[in-house]
Design goal:
The protein contains 20 helices and no strands. By secondary structure, the chain is mainly α. It has 2 domains: 298 residues, Hypothetical protein af1432, CATH 1.10.3210.10; 55 residues, no CATH class. Bound molecules: magnesium ion. Magnesium ion (MG) binds next to α4.
Length: 385
């Protein structure tokens, strides 16, 4: 039997060409992978990338890493894993509406936080200080390091050997030029629209789930939000008009649902207008553009700025969030110092990692990969606390 009905990669690629916009990144036009390998049989290149991300250890560890609230402090609060899954959902919706490559967009979203240190942004700050003399620490670059080299699971190559376009999406604020010829490099200013969508989906996701988690934990108050944050007041008004009186939890959920919807709609419509005005016909034009093309409208951007400032003042720097994080983060310094003095305690592979990256970077990679709870367990085991 020859199983003619099985759908192969070529057919999926032809489907992309037919279905997607001319400015989308087609998997067929990928710059490819650093290490040559046979192409996937029944998946596109970006679908293979997505599966590799999901099967990585770094992805599974996101479950025990802090997003905003210290990991383990509440079963309903977001972790970095559930944040990532929400980002992927929002990114896919926006990509689909704009006829972009949903698979690439989803892959970038699923991988976008792989490089986060334990204990959220405070953990990142601390590692960056500890690494001051050795090139610093930044989570986007760390995501790249993970997929390019730190994951060791395939016999033929280090890392996950992902396509150039997925790695371009992870580089985020850094223009990703690796592996390109000099003339290709000169042109690059921005990543694909798929990468830009994933980036904005991250923001839409965290604004909204931070509001939700903030209220869940009693740190944010609905009435105060309605008084101080324009987007909240607008969405609340809509909910009241449609449902009248709802109990407070149902009301909160629905307001947040409306907020996500409004933001997604705003990004899709604004971006569609930009794309039309520029008459884009190929992704190479996207990469040569000086500014981001996936944006909110000016009105929404202004409203979001107000929301952002509110979240900083009332949630991210709230003592109930800040202090436990601060305390947890203080574990990283002695742990870093300990492994700098006893690098052999990091396991049998350490010698190789030290030769590849130098001692400080190898220690930093090791600690950055830890989950919050592993930091605590290791600190206890080593008698550091
Ligand atoms: Mg994120």
């Amino acid at each position: 039997m020859n199983h003619d009905f099985i759908r192969g990669r070529e057919e999926l690629e032809a489907g992309e060409k037919q279905r997607l916009a001319s400015y989308a990144q087609l998997s067929q036009e990928s710059q490819g992978r650093v290490h040559d390998e046979p192409p996937p049989e029944w998946r596109t290149h970006y679908q293979r990338d997505r599966d590799r991300v999901i099967h990585s250890r770094a992805f599974r560890r996101l479950e025990y890493k802090t997003q905003v609230f210290l990991n383990g402090t509440g079963d309903h609060l977001r972790t970095r894993l559930t944040h990532t899954v929400e980002v992927a959902g929002i990114a896919r919706n926006m990509a689909r509406a704009l006829r972009l490559n949903e698979d690439l967009c989803e892959t970038i979203a699923l991988a976008h936080d792989l490089g986060h240190a334990p204990f959220g942004h405070k953990g990142e700050e601390t590692l960056n200080q500890l690494m001051e003399a050795h090139g610093g620490f930044e989570h986007n670059l760390q995501s790249l390091r993970i997929v390019e080299s730190l994951e060791r699971k395939y016999p033929d190559f280090p890392g996950l050997n992902l396509t150039w376009e997925t790695r371009e999406g992870l580089a985020k604020h850094h223009v990703f030029v690796e592996g390109l010829t000099a003339s290709q490099r000169v042109q690059l200013k921005r990543p694909s629209l798929e990468a830009q969508v994933a980036n904005l989906a991250d923001e839409v996701a965290y604004y909204n789930h931070d509001l939700d988690d903030g209220m869940e934990s009693g740190l944010l108050d609905e009435q105060l939000l309605a008084q101080s944050v324009g987007v909240w007041a607008l969405a609340a008004e809509k909910v009241d008009q449609r449902f009248g009186k709802l109990d407070s939890e149902a009301r909160r959920f629905y307001i947040i649902r409306c907020l996500i919807d409004d933001m997604v709609k705003d990004v899709v419509l604004t971006t569609a207008t930009t794309i039309e005005a520029l008459n884009l016909t190929h992704v190479s034009q996207v990469r040569q553009t000086d500014r981001s093309l996936v944006t909110y409208s000016q009105m929404q951007a202004k409203l979001n700025l107000e929301l952002r400032q509110y979240l900083y003042q009332n949630l991210y720097y709230h003592p109930d969030v800040h202090e436990p994080n601060q305390q947890a983060v203080s574990l990283l310094v002695p742990l870093f110092e300990h492994f700098m003095t006893h690098p052999e305690q990091m396991g049998s592979q350490f010698g190789q990692y030290e030769r590849e990256d130098g001692k400080a970077r190898a220690v930093c990679n090791y600690i950055a990969g830890m989950t919050d709870r592993f930091v605590v367990a290791e600190s206890q085991r080593l008698g550091l606390i």
